[in-house]
Amino acid sequence: MSICSVILTYITNLSNILITKLGNLNNSDYKGLDMATENEEKLIRVLQADVRASTTEIARKLGVSRATVQARILKLEREGTITGYTLTLGKDYLNHYISAHVAIAAEQKSSSFLTANLLKIDAVSVVHAISGDFDMIAVIHARNTEQLSHLIDEIGNLEGVVRTNTSVILETKEKR
Question: Taking the model in full, what pTM does it have?
Answer without folding.
Answer: 0.59
